Amino acid sequence: MGMEWPPASAQQRKAAVVGSRSAAVLKLGLLVILAGLALRLLVGPAAYLLPPTAAPEGPARHVAAPGRETTRGGAGDVMPSGEFAVTGSESLADSDNRQGSPETQESCNLFHGEWVPNPVGPAYTNASCHFIESPQNCMANGRPDTNYLYWRWKPYGCEVPPFDGKKFLDGMQGKHWALIGDSILRNHVQSLLCLLSKVEDANEVYHDDTFRSRRWHFHSHNFTVSLIWAPFLIQAKIFEDDDGVSTADPQLYLDVLETNWTSQWEGFDYVVISTGQWFFKSAVYWENGAEVGCHSCQNKNLKEMPPEYSFRKALNTAFQFITSSPHKPVVFYRTWAPSHFENGEWFSGGTCNRTVPFKPGEAGDREMDSKMWRIEREAFESAVANKGPDDADHLKLLDTFELSLLRPDGHSGPYRTYHPYEKGMTAKVQNDCLHWCLPGPIDAWNDIIMQMLAKD
Ligand SMILES: *[C@@H]1O[C@H](CO)[C@@H](O)[C@H](O)[C@H]1NC(C)=O
Ligand SMILES: *[C@@H]1O[C@H](CO)[C@@H](O)[C@H](O)[C@H]1NC(C)=O
Ligand SMILES: *[C@@H]1O[C@H](CO)[C@@H](O)[C@H](O)[C@H]1NC(C)=O
Ligand SMILES: *[C@@H]1O[C@H](CO)[C@@H](O)[C@H](O)[C@H]1NC(C)=O
Prior knowledge:
With 456 residues, this protein is α/β, with parallel strands linked by helices. Helices cover 25% and strands 17% of the residues. It has one domain (9-455): SGNH hydrolase (Rossmann fold, 3-Layer(aba) Sandwich), CATH 3.40.50.1110. Its main location: Golgi.
């Protein structure tokens, strides 16, 4: 398709060129273009609609050719939340006494701690793992600093040992994992496949025509991993063309689940599920078959409702299904994935060029992130509370928010594209401060999952 992410970055470049001229009329044009760009991106990130240019099949061909950008896995898959990265009242301090999940209560909270130096470095590299998709392949894309690779997550009061792929695969004979959600889940599954590739390479056995839902099989361990695209978890009608231009506001059915995952539920033994920034998009909200309101939508007759409303409703609908289904896979609900745009927003030149993690407390207050994180914990806790004590065991909170928030240095940034500064350091590049480099901080999510499993 020859398209790139975000679809508007060509416009941004155009805007930059235009902006460098001085004629007032052109400045006005710049404003119009930027306003249009902002609107378009707010209305709908769209790169996920673009089919991959090369449609690679086998693992050996997953590495994009240098210089060519695949649209699959682009940062446009979720709308970064940079615009909400403002100071606010709720602080991380209120997480101090929080319990991660029932399993970790007696010992220590795996999710509260700090990043400490790790001279050993990452478990895999861009050379040893061929599941790293181009937008996450920061090393191959020329990221010059490597410090971000030499940290490990250290909870206060305990250790998280590195992921043990052999132990994991040996324990998962005949099992089926599903990762359900948006492109952060895709980021996560790549990390898992890379960590496991030290023991066995997965074979891709299924993908949909857009490569958003995929499945891999580890033959000698008879282990299956599915990635399932359901960015809102609930049912959503999205009206975007291939350029990401919306012809109408997305329609979200807050009490109806996306069948992409529910229809396969009985087949899963373990599930990692999450949702996130997509709820910041403008959308019309439906409940009980009727429009109940909208968020920054075009139809001004509808009642304005905040994204927190639809997010909470959607989570409750999902948890209701999970807790009432007779089938009980082990379910990890993974909490909010924060972005780290600075000096601008994701559509206005925001960057994330830090090279070391934040120290505890250094991330500052993040009102919107904290709000969404609190909603998740509340929804999760009420789901657990609604269960009998014997039954609640299979529900686990994978509360990665805090440890992720401390890693502003781990995002792809400009290195989501191949050698972004080839044409000089002044080149205008779109930064991805939401998805993570691989290897990178997101590998810790799998270390923690392994530890949670080990505790059972
Ligand atoms: C891995 O990254 C290095 C730079 O750190 C690069 O020279 C090399 O070509 C990359 N290898 C692959 C297979 O992409
Ligand atoms: C692989 O696992 C599935 C699901 O547990 C099982 O039905 C099947 O018999 C297994 N296949 C082999 C070859 O063990
Ligand atoms: C569900 O999956 C199908 C096939 O992969 C896809 O076409 C559809 O867009 C998905 N639904 C959503 C909401 O993404
Ligand atoms: C990081 O980006 C900001 C602009 O967003 C720039 O002022 C600063 O010099 C950059 N730092 C490095 C180390 O490149």
